Amino acid sequence: MQILIVEDDSRVADALGSYLRREGYTTRQVGDGASAVAAVSSETEAVILDLGLPDIDGIDVCRRIRGVSGVPILIATARSNVEARIRGLQAGADDFVVKPYDVRELIARIEAVTRRTRTAPIPIGEQSLVKIDGVSIDLANRVVTVDGLSADLTPKEFDILAVLTRYPGVTIPRDRIIREVWKTDWAGFSRSLEVHVASLRRKLNRPEMVATVRGVGYRLLGGQRCADAS
């Protein structure tokens, strides 16, 4: 796996790159935002992105990369406030870690986010539309509209919504959502799930549509399955 490390501190980048190579990964390192966007290619399989870059804010770099590539992006940042994490996820990042981090956790998260690029196709029987209170969810084409307008969901936000949509009205445990969306049983993604759900509710403009079942998980309220999307 080739990993692009975007980090302006050369000591941090060198140490991380050396560790990843010892673990069998191929790495490429850049120290600024413009170089990061230019370095993303078909061979790039994951990006570790620092937000404090010298030329372009990391959030904007994330947004630019996402505009040209679906490569998994993991934000590694010293910004520990929740707002920075939310902005990063809304810009298209798949997950985040806060510095200083354990490199073993970083690798576990990289492995988890890259699994989304190997998601199995939706079975033929699920190629349908689900409509809920002005929200249309096309599982086959991964398209969501709200009151007729396209909802700009990130891949993870759509994946979470798709899991809930397949079982409208049924409470889906948090660990099951993490297992289906991140392809792991690791509970470390619990906080990331919460942030993605909060962003999903905002974009759907219907906070009550994705209900929290305290201590268990989430449930999609309502839903009418329609004819095949085609």
Instruction: Assign a percent range to the helix content.
Output: 25-40%
Q: Look at the structure and give the mean pLDDT.
A: 85
CATH superfamily of the largest domain: Response regulator
Shape: globular
From the N-terminal CA to the C-terminal CA, the straight-line distance is 36 Å
Order of helices and strands: EHEHEHEHEHEEEEHEHHEEE
**What is the CATH level 1 assignment of the largest domain?**
Alpha Beta
Q: Output the structural class.
A: alpha/beta
Find the CATH topology of the largest domain: Rossmann fold
The main sheet comes to: 5 strands, parallel
Radius of gyration: 18 Å
Show unreliable segments: 119-127
Strand content: 15-25%
The tally of strands reads 13
Strand order, sheet with most strands: 2-1-3-4-5
Number of helices: 8
